[in-house]
Amino acid sequence: MERRTLLKTLAILGIGWLTKNMSPKSTEAKEAAMGFEVVKTDAEWKALLTPEQYQVLRHEGTEPPFKNPYHDNHAKGVYHCAGCDLPLFSSEHKYDSGTGWPSFWQPINDHAVETKTDYKLILPRTEVHCHRCGGHLGHVFEDGPKPTGLRYCMNSAAMKFVPAKA
User: Fold this and answer.
1) Residues in contact with 64: Cβ distance below 8 Å, sequence separation at least 6, in sequence order
2) Which of 81, 130, 133, 153 is catalytic?
3) Residue 153 appears among annotated catalytic residues
4) Stretch 142-159: mean pLDDT
């Protein structure tokens, strides 16, 4: 097979795969198949979330660094999933990583988040998702502080902050 023909064939197959796997219907089916407790249609997510929350949580987007409400938040409280209200991170585990996104050295408990490998930037990264609804929260890296050595680098748009009661 000629190289040009091979490249065209691979491009067509790649577009077909993306179209099939990125459609809202297949996203909903994937969520249901993965056993998430909260599963909604694409229209339901759009009605529930702001456009930025929808892009981050449902399409694995990333907000700009330093231009988000929680990167510099020092109040005591708990960060919940903006999609399903599951408590995710405590302010007790938050620290300033200098990255411009809210960073934590551990989730609030062992059942708050799930992870999966992401190859979108060619090199593998570990994506962090809400355990209850599967919403994309951010990524976890192995360059954080003790005691875990982890940096959960989250998107503010994926969370809502609930201040501690005085």
Assistant:
1) 100
2) 153
3) yes
4) 97
Residues whose CB is less than 8 angstroms from the CB of residue 75 and which lie 6 or more positions away in sequence, other chains included: 91, 161, 163, 164
Amino acid at 162: V
144's CB contacts (< 8 A; 6+ apart) are 95, 97, 103, 105, 150, 151, 152
pLDDT band at residue 77 using 50, 70 and 90 as cut-offs: very high
> How far is CA 101 from each of CA 36, 40, 69, 73, 159, rounded to the nearest angstrom?
26, 27, 9, 10, 12
Q: What average pLDDT does range 3-11 have in this prediction?
A: 50
Two tokens, residue 156: 């503010």
pLDDT of residue 83: 97
Compute φ and ψ for 63, nearest 5 degrees: -80, 160
89 and 154 Cβ atoms separated by less than 8 Å = yes
CA distance linking residue 63 with residue 118, whole number of Å: 17
d(C-alpha 120, C-alpha 166), whole Å: 43
